[in-house]
Amino acid sequence: MHLAHVAEKRSHPRIQVRWPVVLMTTEGALDGVIENISAGGAYINCGRLLFRNDLLILGILGLEREPLWIGAEVVRADITLSADSESVPVGMGVRFTFISEEDVQFLTEMSS
Description:
Elements: H1 2-9, E1 15-25, E2 28-37, E3 41-46, E4 55-60, E5 68-79, E6 90-98, H2 101-110
Antiparallel strand pairs: 1-2, 1-4, 2-3, 3-6, 4-5, 5-6
């Protein structure tokens, strides 16, 4: 029941994807993969922990169109513990803070 309540709070439907993304941070660029996305935010896996409220620019690549460049803010960070200390997957939920109307329309159409 709790999960249904969380889903109701989302204002945009999410779609499952595996899109490469470059995260431009104040400390440099990071490579990652978007696992799911909507017109309002995304969930991204990368190899470095970012913190809640960190601001970044996402460059979403590998689409059959020009890359999407979107301003975002980290709203949640997850670390998956692993026996292999060399690779610790880090995931984060981001909320879009700046996205063009054209990109909102593209993501809305993708989720329809």
